Amino acid sequence: MKLDSAETGSKTETRGELESVVKTETGAASAANVCKPKIRAETINGCKPKMRAALRLYAVTDRHWLNGRTLVECVEQAVDGGATFVQLREKDLDEDSFLNEARALKKLCAARAVPFVVNDNVMIAKEVCADGVHVGQSDMACLEARRLLGPEKIIGVSACTVEQALLAERQGADYLGVGAVFATGSKADAESVSFETLKAICRAVKIPVVAIGGISAGNVHELKGSGIAGVSVISAIFANDDIRAATKILAGKVAEVF
After folding, report:
1. For residue 87, what are the β-bridge partners?
2. Residues marked as catalytic
3. What are phi and psi of 108, to 5 degrees?
4. Which of 4, 130, 155, 213 is found 20 to 30 A from 86 (Cα to Cα)?
5. How far is the CA of 206 from the CAs of 169, 219, 229, in angstroms?
6. pLDDT tens per residue across span 146-198
7. Which residues of 233-256 are buried (b: 16+ CB within 10 A; e: fewer)?
8. Does 39 score more than 80 pLDDT?
9. In whole angstroms, what is the distance from residue 17 CA to residue 118 CA?
């Protein structure tokens, strides 16, 4: 992917890491055939540097902001703008439509060397050979998700406390989503997590942590020093008319913090 000159430096390094992670041994990943995410296999020990790099700017979809555009179009713009990880989140879509969206996004993300996971629905993730799944505290337990998906897939778990974070790590989670660190309207059931709790979770676990909830280009600097690997956003990217431009701005702010 071609980056503007203003995006070179740490972003170029990160994109290079991602390409080496998701591409197959024979070249760029095939959208339909890649089923084993190398990112987890290569980084399951220690501080998981490649996993941390992939989590730098984590985009979570929300069709509420489509405004006549397709989800694939919106995600493509986000990736072009600098999103390094994509999660498909669908709470109300019927199963067939969900499956079709997942297949389309899997194809896009594989072609762009960006890890792709599905929120909550392990069976959809398995069906489309997604790189993994993200589960919450009220969703399928991490152990069960791992049993169904196998050892090579990426599993992320939401956590609000140190206890939840430690349990998820023991059960084999590859990363944590912690928040809401700011007030958010994207998730009605989001609990509030203080900066001190965020720091405590980052200190308590060895797996990377992504901050979630109400994060924007205007407040991401407030998370500096927390120990997180990156930020997960919805409206900060997808609520904009020009998604690529908004993502590019946010990516620049994130690079300043991390």
Report:
1. 60, 117
2. 89, 158, 187
3. -65, -50
4. 4
5. 8, 26, 11
6. 999 999 999 999 999 999 999 999 999 999 999 999 988 666 666 899 999 99
7. bbbbbbbbeebbebbbbbbebbbe
8. no
9. 22
